[in-house]
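Researcher: Structure prediction, please.
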Amino acid sequence: MAKEGYMTGNQLRQYLHISTRKLKFLMDNDYIPHENTGHPTHKYLVKIEDAEAFNKRQHTDKKLIADLAGLFTSRTEHHPLPKAEVSEETLCEYRRFVEERFRTEPEALSVTRICELTSMVGMTVHRLIASGILYGTKVQGKTFCSKSTLIDYLASEDTFRNPTCEGCKELVRTFKRRKSNDTYNEQRRERRKLEREKKGSGT
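Model: Predicted structure follows.
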């Protein structure tokens, strides 16, 4: 039994109609505020108000929906997730995010280094060079690519919508998770502000 005002992890899973695997992912990545009791039977404790808030978000917050889309395809879950629109503002934010990730890298990147950073295979990098998407040049028999054209490719709308390599997928997932958390925190701050104003007015 959970203490008053709280749900156990199992109760939360049933309340949200999600799998145990998805619950663990949400807890491990702090999508829902919770206490970790350390007990194997009732490992998680979640405030009812936080559970209700997340339940609303998982159906209405486009950024959260996009973040979780495609990560869980268990047959026990049949919740079609609408595609979130990708606004120009979001793409600009994502580009800044990618630029920051590659900030310490030199302008000339070897194919090997690009493969390390993005999990692309060398053949894919050479194909992107051949098609003109990446700018490449050979120096002493070794192929180097322009970092700026790599960022252009990674931050493009097509790559953002449909990342193909694991490194690209992880970039998009991390960005969406951070953006979703920022939105949620902003909503909480706004809610607390309204509560303080309400108390201050004596209503």
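Model: DSSP finds ten helices and six strands in the chain.
Researcher: Thanks, that helps.
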